[in-house]
Every structure is written in structure tokens, then in C-alpha cells.
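Chapter summary example.
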Amino acid sequence: MFIEINLQQIYKSTSGLIAKLAEIDKYINEALKQAGEGNEIILTGAAPVWMYLKIAHALHGKAKRLYYSAPGQGIEKFEIFSHDPY
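The structure predicted for these 86 residues follows.
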């Protein structure tokens, strides 16, 4: 099952127009809630690199596969990691 997590929507819903490093724990918790366990996750949305890195790290061990997507940049689905034994 693919689950798309839009990081921009996460920080806008909790912090407003700008992602704040002081709010990273809230962002991580929301991403983990959306991701569930053992799913294939796609991270997308305009967000700072530090937010992508922290959330990707938090999803390690929770997601079967993690992808990055930036359609405006021509990146539809770039695999970050896979823990699928097949």
C-alpha cells in the first residue's frame, strides 16, 4: 500500500507558513501517524531538507520502502530505501 505524506501540509497545519526546527517532534509524530507500519511511503511537498532527513530517519524500520517525489522537478518516485526482502 502506497501512502503519500506531504511534508508541506504537515508543517502548515501545525506551524503556519514556515517549518520550524523547534517543531520537528510534532512533524515526526504526524508523519509516523500517517505512515503506519510496513507500508510503502512517498514523501513529497515543499519542505526544508532537514525536515525530509529527520522524517526519513524516523521512518526507517517503520516503512517497507521509502520514496521521494518532486513532480515539479521531474522526479515522480525516487527510492530512498527498501526493506522488502523480495
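To summarize the output: The CA atoms of residues 28 and 57 lie 10 Å apart.
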